[in-house]
Amino acid sequence: MPGVITSQSEDFPQWYQDVLAKAELADNGPVRGTMVVRPYGYAIWERIQGEIDRRIKQAGAENVYLPLFIPESYLRKEAEHVEGFSPELAVVTHAGGKELEEPVVVRPTSETLFGEVMAKWVQSYRDLPLLLNQWANVVRWELRPRVFLRTTEFLWQEGHTAHATREDAAEYALRILHDVYRDFFVNVLAVPVFVGRKTRKERFAGAVNTLACEGMMRDGKALQLATSHELGQTFARAFDITYTSENGTVEHCWTTSWGSSTRIVGGLIMAHGDDGGLRLPPRVAPLQAVVVLVRDDPDAAGVARRLAADLGGAGVRVKLDADVASSYGRRVTDWELKGVPVRIEVGPRELAEGKVTLVRRDTGERSGVALDGVAAAVTEALGRIQTDMLAQAEGFVREHTADVTGVSDAVDAAQDGFARIPWAALGEGGEAELAGHGVSVRCLQRPDGSVPASEDEPGVVAIVAKAY
Question: Which of 260, 368, 385, 386 could cysteine-pair with 226, CB 3.0–4.6 Å?
Answer without folding.
Answer: 260
